[in-house]
Design goal:
Elements lengths: L14 E3 L2 E3 L4 E12 L4 E6 L10 E9 L5 E4 L1 E4 L5 E6 L6 E12 L2
Antiparallel strand pairs: 1-2, 2-3, 3-9, 4-8, 5-6, 5-9, 7-8
């Protein structure tokens, strides 16, 4: 079975839904976008995964952006912490502005 450009799965059933993909070899990929309003200090976003990982040994990255007072999107640093099998906490830091932000994230680990 082909799942998009260049990804082929064989030997089992692939399951997917909103924000996740379970592969037959036990790989679980969860992804999404979170956001809100930032008050000018450290901001935390708790992400709840659409599917549970088997353990907290998954890899997760996040990238943030915000709508600045200047009227354009800008990047912001993100750090992932507080990982459990069902959620993780993303920290975003901007000490000078109040802004509306979004954070795109992906986590890759195991479901079995």
């Amino acid at each position: 079975m082909v799942i998009g450009e260049g990804i082929t799965v064989s030997g089992g059933q692939t399951e997917g839904g909103s924000g996740y993909c379970k592969l037959p070899d036990g790989t679980l990929i969860c992804y999404g976008v979170a956001g809100g309003y930032h008050d000018g200090t450290m901001n935390t976003i708790t992400v709840t995964f659409p599917m549970e990982f088997i353990d907290a040994n998954y890899a997760m990255v996040a990238t943030g952006s915000f709508w600045s007072d200047a009227g354009s999107y800008r990047g912001v640093n993100c750090t992932v912490s507080g990982k459990t099998t069902t959620q993780a906490v993303i920290y975003q830091n901007n000490t000078t502005n109040r802004w509306t932000h979004k954070c795109e994230w992906i986590a890759i680990g195991r479901w079995k």
